[in-house]
Design goal:
With 213 residues, the chain is mainly alpha-helical. It has a domain of 110 residues: Ferredoxin Thioredoxin Reductase, CATH 3.90.460. It contains 7 helices and 2 strands, in the order E-E-H-H-H-H-H-H-H. The longest helix is centred in the last third of the chain and has 22 residues.
Amino acid sequence: MRALQASTSYSVGFGISTVAPPPPPPRHRVVFSAKAEPTEKSVEIMRKFSEQYARRSDTYFCVDKSVTSVVIKGLAEHKDTLGAPLCPCRHYDDKAAEAQQGFWNCPCVPMRERKECHCMLFLTPENDFAGQDQTISSEEIKETTAKMELGGLVAAVAPPPPHHHRHQTSQKKRKQSVELPHISRADLDQTRVIRADQDHLSAIALRPPNHCT
């Protein structure tokens, strides 16, 4: 199962790879942003809607519930600010106009007509990213998004290794040397004698034999 990534600050994005054997490189990156925390009431409305529509359309939530959670919160945020659950995974020049037009309000037209969900909220059973659940609790949404926000915060505040520390480490590595065993003069002389004897024996072995006439 290929891993999915989701991150929020509260800005959310996750990478999607087109499913095909062999796996191709990611075709596009889906990103949506929520500028304000949605109300609990709107999150609950969109949570219940998502469960009901998944059952009605015979689709399933992503195996990675963090994807489901951030999409539901994105829909809830748009419901609060725009009055309609505009798809949170797309870029719009005019969100208010798009929400009024309705094409990308969840469930969007591609989802209703072809079961194509750009956000991966509703996945058909044969999709490699589809899980087995058509339900998600309020606690799951809170926990998964809280972990993502905490993870993004830790990554943002974690300082990189100090430059001087890396320099000292490299200096220590350069100073390290391999200690060779001490070889005495007598050992060297003995080595020369053995090598001379070996050369003499090799010369005898290669000497052609004497033939009697």
